[in-house]
Amino acid sequence: MADKTRKRDDDLIVPKDAASASFVKGLVARGQAARPRKDGSLPPGATHEIVGVTATGLPILRRRRFAQ
Fold first, then answer.
1. CA–CA separation, 46 and 39 (whole Å)
2. What is the pLDDT of residues 2-22, one digit of tens each?
3. Is the dihedral of CA 21, 54, 58, 14 positive or negative?
4. Domain ranges, ordered by start, for the chain
5. Secondary structure of 25-37 in the HEC alphabet?
6. pLDDT of residue 6
7. What pTM was computed for the model?
């Protein structure tokens, strides 16, 4: 059973090299990464939430999982 009290830092995507930076840029370009709306929801088609920015200006993302 998963520990639901721990932080979900393992879901963070912090671009640290060329491959991860390219991945993040692609998600943003396709509209799959976005800042949440005022109600906390993401726009249609977004699967990743922008939760911060690196020193280089690239976004830090968190994968949003949805219950079915």
1. 15
2. 555 445 667 899 999 999 999
3. positive
4. 10-63
5. HHHHHCCCEECCC
6. 47
7. 0.79
